[in-house]
């Protein structure tokens, strides 16, 4: 009987560690990567230990590996089902000679991606042409439906580069508020006055706050935090401020209120 497993606790590096394990075990079957019940799964096909192909709707081959590494924080479950060699599309073939090469290439792609800080896979978006879409991952999966509209948005100086052309177009649209996230977002740089207020931080306070902030971000390179997550972060900062004294606590609440107020303005312009 072949190896099969189901992982529901996905941490940084889990996916590619699993792929490395499957490669060493020389398995044949399909690795299913789930971002949640409402989002289509990404598939990686293994043939005798080789990661032969990968698919995520309109994305194929190495592009899927780029997506998985970029949006690994959005992954909810990983399943592997052994079986006979499956049929996959020719464009889905992973051309790298080995899994290690494919992962290294994906890592380099993600490291140099200038669009990534504003690409949040799980957040719902609104596209004028098609209306509300459940998540940005849905847009990437069904990209052919949105491609013509996104291509109609003219390039401008300041457009960000990305290994995936889909992300170039999405970042262009999102940064100009043509396509919008349905969830209000707070810019991380707007946190500075709040953080300055509670300095100097004790080592334990700084370590805990950094770790908590990281856990609330859509991914480690994100430039924005969803408003509902900012409430949680602001509460942690407010607790520290209160320990500094009543005046510091009151000032922290004023800053937090102003940040929430400015974030929820309908006419807010996002600059990234």
Summarize the structure.
This protein has 272 residues and is of the alpha+beta class.
Keywords:
single chain, 272 residues, alpha+beta, 41% helix, disordered C terminus
Report the end-to-end length measured between terminal Cα atoms: 51 Å
Give the SSE string.
EHEEEEHEHEEHHHEEHHEHH
Helical element count? 10
Strand content: 15-25%
The outline comes out as globular
Derived from helix and strand composition plus strand pairing, the structural class reads: alpha+beta
Question: Quick check: average pLDDT?
Answer: 92
| Percent in helix | 40-55%
Radius of gyration, CA atoms, in whole angstroms: 21 Å
Strand order of the largest sheet: 1-6-2-3-4-5
Sheet with the most strands, sense and barrel status:
6 strands, antiparallel
Number of strands: 11
Low-confidence stretches: 266-272
**Oligomer designation:** single chain
Structure commentary:
With 272 residues, the chain is of the alpha+beta class. It contains ten helices and eleven strands. It has helices at residues 14-24, 62-70, 99-111, 136-141, 147-151, 165-175, 192-197, 203-216, 227-244, 246-263, and strands at 5-7, 29-34, 42-47, 50-56, 59-60, 77-82, 125-127, 131-133, 180-181, 185-187, 224-226.
Q: What's the structural blueprint in terms of helices and strands?
A:
Layout: E1 5-7, H1 14-24, E2 29-34, E3 42-47, E4 50-56, E5 59-60, H2 62-70, E6 77-82, H3 99-111, E7 125-127, E8 131-133, H4 136-141, H5 147-151, H6 165-175, E9 180-181, E10 185-187, H7 192-197, H8 203-216, E11 224-226, H9 227-244, H10 246-263
Helix pairs in contact: 2-3, 8-9, 9-10
């Amino acid at each position: 009987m072949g190896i099969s497993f189901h992982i529901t606790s996905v941490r940084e590096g889990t996916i590619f560690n699993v792929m490395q394990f499957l490669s060493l075990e020389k398995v044949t079957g399909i690795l299913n990567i789930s971002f949640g019940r409402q989002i289509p799964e990404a598939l990686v096909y293994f043939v005798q230990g080789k990661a032969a192909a990968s698919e995520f709707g309109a994305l194929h081959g190495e592009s899927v590996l780029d997506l998985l590494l970029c949006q690994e924080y959005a992954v909810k479950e990983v399943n592997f089902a052994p079986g006979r060699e499956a049929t996959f599309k020719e464009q889905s073939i992973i051309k790298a000679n080995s899994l290690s090469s494919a992962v290294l290439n994906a890592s380099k792609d993600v490291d140099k991606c200038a669009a990534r800080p504003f690409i949040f896979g799980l957040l719902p978006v609104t596209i004028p042409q098609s209306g509300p879409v459940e998540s940005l991952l849905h847009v990437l999966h069904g990209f052919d439906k949105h491609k013509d509209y996104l291509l109609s948005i003219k390039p401008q100086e300041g457009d960000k580069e990305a290994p995936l052309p889909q992300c170039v177009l999405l970042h262009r649209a999102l940064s100009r508020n043509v396509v919008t996230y349905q969830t209000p977002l707070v810019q991380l740089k707007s946190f500075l006055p709040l953080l300055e207020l509670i300095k100097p931080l004790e080592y334990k306070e700084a370590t805990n706050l950094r770790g908590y902030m990281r856990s609330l971000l859509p991914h480690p390179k994100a430039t924005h935090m969803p408003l509902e997550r900012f409430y949680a972060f602001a509460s942690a900062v407010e607790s520290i401020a209160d320990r500094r004294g009543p005046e510091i606590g009151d000032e922290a609440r004023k800053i937090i209120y102003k940040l929430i107020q400015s974030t929820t303005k309908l006419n807010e312009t996002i600059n990234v």
